[in-house]
Amino acid sequence: MPRMVPCPHCRELHPPGSTFCPMTGQPLAVAPAPPPPGAHIPHNYPLAISQPGLGTAIGLLMRTMPYAMVRFGVSMLASILTIIFWVIALGGGAWLGAKVAPAVGWIWVIAFLVAFGFFWRLILRYILYLIKCGHIAVLTELITKGQVANGNEGMFAYGKRIVTERFGQVNALFVVDMLVQGVVRTFNRTLDFIGSLFPVEALRQLIAIVQAVVRAATTYIDETIFSYGLAREEKNPWASARDGLIYYAQNAKPILKTSVGIVLIDYAISFVVWLIMLAPAYAISRALPKEMLLASIIAWVIAFLFAGSIRASFVRPLFLIMVMVKFHLSIRGQPINVEWEQRLESISDKFREITSKIVTGWPSAPLAQQPQPPVAPPPPQIPPRPAT
After folding, report:
1. Bridge-partner residues for 14, per DSSP?
2. Euclidean distance between CA atoms 289 and 278, whole angstroms
3. Domain residue spans in the chain?
């Protein structure tokens, strides 16, 4: 049966062959051209988005604003806890150093810093990672289908369910992410068109700046490949990571071009955010007398943490969406190019490691043991009667 064509704006379905939505007057998502015979395309999922761009990204971010607000709330909580930890660590260390012994004060500070590092890495970072994965799952559903679970499930319930069902323990996803980042960094060092991504000749001469911007641009690639695995409903993330990396290599120039532009805009927006957040801190520090130096320092710290939370919760997700949409649109109907697969295998041992793990698959969660019905005891054995 021919697939209905979705409208990327109102999400209504229209008969095959339709090019415009009569409700909004906007163009519909156009089906990709059929692949050549024998081509291997490891995915077949719809797309409800037809145009990449800042407007599309803003619309998707607004539709998932509850997730962004939760990320902001958790980031602010982490910031407050960070301030409390530092006050206790430095204040307690100073008091113990003055009242007991300097060595005791230093031991107190080091112990609190170690405890905070453990708390951040194993608890707060884990919670933020879970929320980010759920947010990406919801965004992927909106990009591919236009709505979350056909409107039958809330976005938080859907994000939690998808991440749990697809990958079991999310801790193991750190391994996939680190390997993907390593492959991307290795591949980017082999590109010969990086300088052409910058229109200004002076920037091309500053190789260090160019490479730094490219490295910043690729921070969204591992999350985009995670979205690709969700879109194709892959049960083995090693397989989707391998194919996603090949697709990134095949489309590196348009994806990096979008990503580099995003990073430059990100720098500009982040500068404005930091300026707005730090201006009150500067005013407070100027108004306070010198005797209240600690209050001025606290004001600056709060401003820095607040600006960082805004950037992590709203600015970065906005640009991540732009890269995700560009990636999904670029690979639509595109077969795997074996030459790019061979090139990645030749330059990256991490890519070869990902490929080798496809065979072993992904450890599934152990099934709950079902209660077994009671077994009736065997009938008593009657000894044979001795012969007379």
Report:
1. 5
2. 19
3. 46-360
> What is the spatial distance between Cα 191 and Cα 158, in angstroms, rounded to a whole number?
39
Tokens of 361: 């698959």
Q: Which of 239, 261, 188 is nearest to 218 (CA)?
A: 188
Q: Could you give the 3-state DSSP secondary structure of residue 152?
A: coil
User: Side-chain half-sphere of 199: how many Cα atoms within 13 Å?
Assistant: 3
**pTM for the structure as a whole:** 0.73
Tokens of 287: 């108004």
Q: Are 85 and 116 a contacting pair, CB within 8 Å?
A: yes
Yes or no: say if 124 and 81 are a contact pair by the CB < 8 Å rule.
yes
Q: What residue type is assigned to position 334 of the chain?
A: Q
Q: In 124-218, which ranges are E strands? A: none
- What is the residue whose two structure tokens read 């999922």? 45
pLDDT at 367: 38
**Cβ neighbours for 123, distance < 8 A, ≥ 6 positions apart:** none
Return d(Cα 7, Cα 10) in angstroms, integer.
6
Q: What are phi and psi of 9, to 5 degrees?
A: -105, -50
**Rounded CA separation 352/229 (Å):** 18
- Dist CA 15 CA 9 (whole Å): 16
Average pLDDT, the chain: 77
pLDDT digits (tens, 9 = 90+) for 83-133: 788 788 888 888 888 888 888 888 888 888 888 777 776 677 777 778 888
| End-to-end Cα distance, the chain | 84
Residue type, 250: Q
**DSSP H or E run through 184:** helix 173-188
Residue at token pair 């909580």: 77
- State how far the Cα of 143 lies from the Cα of 148, in Å rounded to an integer: 10
- Beta partners for residue 6, in sequence order: 13
Both tokens of residue 314?
């709203």
* pLDDT computed for residue 64 by the predictor: 92
The sign of the dihedral angle between the CA atoms of 80, 84, 85, 86 is: positive
In this predicted structure, the answer to whether residue 36 has a pLDDT above a threshold of 70 is no
